[in-house]
Amino acid sequence: MQSTLPYSWYTDPEILRREQELVFRSAWQYVGHLGQVPEPGTFFAGSSGRTPIVVTRAREDDELRAFVNVCRHRGFPVAEGQGRRETLQCPYHAWTYGLDGSLRSAPRSEEEPDFPREELGLLPAAVGTWGPFVFVNTSDDPEPLADALGSMPAQIDELGLDVDDLVFHTRWEAELDANWKIVCENFLECYHCQVAHPAFAAVIDTSTDAYALSTEGRLSSQRGPVRENVRLDGELQRSQFHFLWPNLGVNIFAGRPNISIGPMVPLTPDRTYRFLDYFFGSDVGPDWIDELMAFDAQVGLEDRSLVEGVHRGLAAGVLDHGVLMGRSEQLIGHFQSLTAAALGQA
Ligand code: FES
Ligand SMILES: [Fe+2]
User: Fold this and answer.
1) pLDDT for the residue numbered 251
2) Which of 50, 122, 293, 310 is the most buried (most CB within 10 A)?
3) What count of other Cβ atoms lies within 10 Å of the Cβ of residue 264?
4) Residue-wise DSSP of 224-249
5) Cα of 77 from ligand 1 centre, angstroms
6) What is the pLDDT of residue 234?
7) 314 CB contacts (<8 Å, ≥6 apart)?
């Protein structure tokens, strides 16, 4: 039987430090959506892993750009929230940047001989989009976003979901008392669905034969059909749950056009930040949306108690590792191999 990763990896600060460097640094991260920058002269702040980010659309050229949201003077974030502005002014000493990242003015800089204004623009990050979804990459030489997304956009297209017709609804946020890998691993198996998510399992057939698991590169996909005895209102007859290593979850429930997307971000070895942006097709009514949100909130509560319980168990330090069910938990095996390989422990 296959073993899990060593349990010490879920609590050791040194492992997290190496994961930040070897797993997250070069990964594309979902930061937000185009609805947050609806026209030239707008911006929004977000984060890519633990790096604060600001995404902008400069008025001059209407180009979508991303920068590290850290003032080049002494490090204060230059932008907060989202909005319409011609410039970003750091609240600390009022250095002012254009939405193209250039430093426009710095109070008293004329008193400094040879003040290198041109060299003190915001640090750029790579930015890319898929439908309304905005991704950022802070590595020096990122692979194209399309390569990172693999077959996920095609699978979603095949399901009949048009991502370009989606309208943003809400962002859900949570902090969980569990290592980020536990949160990802919980996402990657539905072996617990029958036991822990009765409402979910009543709608989606989670049996091994019906519930399809597949991996392709860094992408892990779960496709669950609606149970035969359930009549579901809507054009999507299957659910799709995608996971893009290292930490992105994408959920589509059967029914009307819907998607929720967001990362699982390590804060400390025993704490994880999650957010999920919910989008719905432009003609999906409020009742259907409310019902799905309530259903998903219930599943979320059930998952919180599972991952936090697992973390307490692993952190007890009594057992060295656990075991994986070869068939039902194959996606966890895939996640763990990718993670171990990135850490040079394959
Ligand atoms: S830290 Fe931004 S102006 Fe000083
Ligand atoms: Fe779950």
Assistant:
1) 98
2) 122
3) 25
4) EEBPTT---SSSB-EEEEEEETTTEE
5) 8
6) 87
7) 7, 10, 11, 179, 182
Instruction: Single out the residue of 234, 233, 214, 231 nearest to residue 223, CA to CA.
Output: 214
**Cβ–ligand 1 contact at 79 (below 6 Å):** no
Report mean pLDDT in 10-residue bins for the chain, 346 residues.
Answer: 96 97 95 98 95 96 97 98 97 98 98 97 98 96 97 96 97 97 98 94 93 97 92 88 98 97 98 97 96 95 97 97 97 98 89
Q: Measuring from atom 1 of ligand 1, which residue has the nearest CA?
A: 74
pLDDT of residue 233: 79
Distance CA 186, CA 182 (A): 6
Ligand 1 near 93 CB (within 6 A): yes
| CB 208 within 8 Å of CB 300 | no
Q: What is the pTM of this model?
A: 0.96
Determine contact, residues 31/66, Cβ cutoff 8 Å. Answer: yes
Query: Number of C-alpha atoms within 13 angstroms, CB side, residue 12?
Result: 10
Best residue among 54, 69, 73 to mutate for probing ligand 1's pocket (most ligand atoms within 8 Å of CB) is 73
Indicate the length of the chain as a whole number.
346
Residues lining ligand 2 (ion), CB within 5 A?
Answer: 303
